[in-house]
Amino acid sequence: VATAAAASACSAASAAGLPCARLSCCGTVVDVSHAHLVRLWARWRATKAAAGSGEATSESAELAAFATAAFCAACRVLSLQGGDERAGGMQAACPQAVFTALGVQSEAFASPFNAISPSFCSASADVDAPFGSCGSFFALEPPAGAVLLANPPFDGATVLAMARRIDELCDAADAADAALASGTAAEGGEAGGLSVAVVVPRTPAEEGWRALKGSRHLRSELVLPRSKHAFVDGGQQYGRRQAPLRLSNHDSSLFWMQSANARADAAALTAARESFRAGFKVLGPLDGVAKKKKNNKKKRGRGEEES
Question: What's the rounded mean pLDDT across residues 69-96?
Answer without folding.
Answer: 81
